[in-house]
Amino acid sequence: MTRDEAVKSIKEKFGSRIERFYEKSKRRIYIDIAKDDLVDFATHVFKDMGARFNIATAVDHPKDIEIMYHFELDNIGCIITLRTYTKKDKCEIDSLLPLMKGAEWIEREIHELFGVEFRNHPNIKRLLLPDDWPKDKYPLRKDYVLKTKEDRDR
Amino acid sequence: MSHKVTIPIGPYHPLQEEPEFYKLVVDGERVVDIDVRIGWNHRGIEKLSETKSFDQSAYLVERICGICSTSHPLAYVNAVEDIDEIDIPERAAYIRTITAELERIHSHMLWLGLAGHFLGYNTVFMWAWRYREPILDILEAISGNRNNYAMMKVGGVRRDIDESEIPHYKKILNDELLPALEMFKGAVLDDPVLAARLKGVGKLTKEDAIDYSALGPTARASGYDIDVRRDEPYAAYDKIKWNVILQEEGDVFAKSVVRILEMIESAHIIIQCFDKLPRGPIDANVKQVSPGDGIGHHEAPRGEVIHIVRCDGTNRPVRHKVRAPTFMNFPSFKKTVVGETIADATIILAAIDPCYCCTERLTAVSHKDSKTIMGVQRLIHLSHHKTWDIGKAMGFSDKELIEKMGKKIE
Question: In sequence order, which ranges of B307-371 are alpha helices (DSSP H)?
């Protein structure tokens, strides 16, 4: 599959469901999608196009959390990023774990550091934080304040 | 009749170099389930990076891990350069390749030694670490340090390689390292004891490797043909002739073969780089980073390291995501360890060359209603508590545990 074929395959399959298609460079493609379309897009990219799941990145915004799923097409050396937003007051998104096992840990990580709920994730327990970490504190959100050295050492 | 027993390994255990906790559920000799818990090694690198400038972060990510201390900065500078699509000078690209490949050799040597050690084959351990020394010597001569080389910067490299010393480096590689690698190839690969011990152990099929998105030697030993050095070339990897090493079996033996052959391949890459090293500047003098997203990766010794950086036009990243290879390779234990015996579990766990300080970089401070809940006393208590829970899970009664630990832990 060449790069043009890959682009065409996504555009033909999803058409108007793509909210924004942005080719940043030869090797980087960003696709903005609605969060309910995530599983369909990911299935197409991962299963049909044979991409490898790199990782997911969450970014905190004032009202919502942005989640980017990066997939690498190894045969053409191109990273496709699926980007979606979820509102902070109803912070949930579908899990990709039923599709690929590689998503298990990163979803657990985003869950505890950003407070995003993953629907259909069967094993969403703590991975990095201690068990008695307060439930409403998410360390990688921007409103989380690092305390001073005195507080840390107390 | 089946009788399942939970065996806790870690978080601190003489066999492990770094803290991690495995809960092995065994039925007789067989492992039937495994649960891994990490989080003892958090330093909050991603959060910290948001407070550092783009130049400072290169030093910060270097401290993620001592073994991968070139891989993380290289992936990071690739990411920052990807935002503006900066082209770096050719000489800098070659120097980056040389440092990265030297690191691969020393890291694989380290793994080979430890793998021998885990098997109780300490001769391999001694010899592998002995031949790791000349590589560290070259790195020290080039960068000034045996580890944490601080060679990478956005737009180029920080130190040039002295032309007059190149013959000396090449002599070490040709006369000391390559014969030693050939010796390892023969000694380890033809050894009937190692073959009996490692072949068919801890198999990861290609389908599972794809499903778990396994990386690096772990994936390539299962016939999953990925290597970002070839697939998406950066530095000078597209200007040099080299091969990606593949094996089909997916067992621990195949992983060892991949690593040993990769070291030989790396040595040839370095020699070619020294031969071709062009003259010219080593730095593109990047003054500013534009707003935007950048994704950079590097094929570290353990697999692809990926850094994702977002810039909003200031001199600090808004978000800096680090994904180390062990983060993806680790969960594949569920496939490789289950069904094997306890005796094989250690070497299977070691076979992906796990690196915990890479995997855990998040979170630093913990507080509740502005009171710190994680003081020293609290940590000691947590440790006691964990021991107590493990004791309970192993089937000890309260009375027995109080006898062992001195008091009841709530």
Answer: 325-329, 333-336, 342-351, 356-359
Which one of B222, B232, B314, B333 would you mutate to disrupt binding with A, by most A Cβ within 10 Å of its Cβ? B232
Size of chain B in residues:
410
Look at A147 and B367 and tell me if their CB atoms are within 8 Å.
yes
Type of residue found at B408: K
Closest CA to B308 of A121, A60, A54: A54
Per 3-state DSSP, what percentage of chain B is helix, strand, and coil (rounded to 5)?
Answer: 50, 15, 35
Task: State how many domains chain A has.
Answer: 1
Chain B CB contacts of A146 under 8 Å are 47, 364-365
Indicate yes or no: CB of A77 within 8 angstroms of CB of B38: no
Which ranges of B54-89 would DSSP assign to H, the alpha helix?
A: 54-62, 71-84
Cα torsion at B13, B213, B111, B228 (round to 10°)? -150
Q: Do B47 and A78 touch (CB under 8 A)?
A: no
CA distance A112 to A126: 7
Cβ proximity of B152 and B73 under 8 Å: yes
pLDDT digits (tens, 9 = 90+) for B324-382: 998 898 888 888 888 888 888 878 877 777 766 666 654 334 444 444 455 556 667 77
CATH code: domain of residue A107: 3.30.460.80
Q: Residue B102 is inside which H or E element, if any?
A: helix B90-118
Q: Do A139 and B232 touch (CB under 8 A)?
A: no
Q: Are B19 and B26 in contact (CB under 8 A)?
A: no
What domain range includes position A88?
3-153
Give φ, ψ of A68 to 5 degrees. -115, 130
Closest by CA to B23, choosing from B10, B4, B12, is B10
- What's the pLDDT tens digit per position in B153-211? 999 999 999 999 999 999 999 999 999 999 989 888 888 888 888 898 889 999 999 99
Q: CB–CB of A28 and B47 under 8 A?
A: no
Name every chain B residue with its beta carbon within 8 A of the beta carbon of A126: 39
Nearest to B296 by CA among B138, B104, B100, B148: B100
| A49 and B CB contact within 8 Å | no
Question: Contact B303/B332 with Cβ under 8 angstroms?
Answer: no
Q: In Å, how far from its chain's centre is CA B151?
A: 19
* Answer CATH for B45-329 from 3.40.630.30, 1.10.10.60, 1.10.540.10, 1.10.645.10: 1.10.645.10
Give the pLDDT mean for B85-109: 94
Cα angle vertex B36, ends B33, B39, to 5°?
170
